[in-house]
Design goal:
The protein is mainly alpha-helical. The chain has helices at 2-23, 30-37, 41-44, 51-67, 75-78, 84-99, 102-114, 119-145, 154-179, 184-197.
């Protein structure tokens, strides 16, 4: 019985993703979702209490799916034996791989296009940004403890780094789609300049 419950919930989430990519979040209704998976609208409430809850669950599910078997990171162990450039390059590549998942990208296209007028979309982007900021702070703190870089204000350094990487990801996606241009070199250049800015004095 539990297996059927999980499969049905997964089907609902995937159906929501497909419908949202066609109709957008604002136009998407619970009735459409229920019809697409062959159940009554009332049955959706056995899994989700509202469309907002469904969308949040979809985001959480896709994020976990895109992480795959990637284990939780102990940043103290992760930075050992690596240069500052290597630490940031590897962590950036892992994050880009996660959000570059096909379903995750489809979801992001929807919420990015609806962010200005959809509270649900704005909330998802806010959640993702705050997750990125938190993990960046943890990473930079570990780098400072292990004397890879030196920050006078880790909070501001994390904000600067996370927002720049986030914007570079969006920019590179647009360049690839519109001009078929690969901008991966920009990440290397930015990471090198970031490490140069915060390198330990005297090194």
């Amino acid at each position: 019985m539990g297996g059927i419950h999980l499969i049905q919930k997964k089907d609902i989430l995937y159906a929501t993703l497909e419908l949202a990519s066609i109709h957008g979040l604002r136009s998407l209704s619970l009735s459409q979702i229920a019809e697409s998976v062959g159940i009554k609208k009332a049955s959706l409430y056995n899994h989700f209490h509202s469309k907002e809850e469904l969308i949040t669950n979809l985001y959480q599910y896709l994020r976990e799916e895109s992480k795959g078997n990637m284990p939780a990171i102990d940043y103290g162990e992760f930075v050992k034996g690596k240069s500052a450039e290597d630490v940031l390059t590897i962590s950036c590549a892992n994050y880009r791989k996660m959000i570059g998942n096909e379903n995750m990208m489809k979801f992001y296209k929807v919420i990015m296009s609806e962010r200005p007028f959809s509270k649900e979309a704005a909330n998802i982007l806010l959640l993702e940004t705050e997750k990125m900021l938190l993990t960046t702070k943890q990473l930079l703190y570990a780098m400072q403890i292990h004397k890879l870089l030196d920050f006078t204000n880790i909070d501001m350094a994390a904000l600067s780094y996370a927002m720049t990487i986030h914007n570079l990801i969006e920019y590179c996606i647009d360049k690839l789609v519109v001009q078929n241009m690969n901008c991966d070199y920009l990440f290397d250049e930015y990471i090198n300049s970031f490490c140069e800015l915060y390198k330990i004095k005297g090194e």
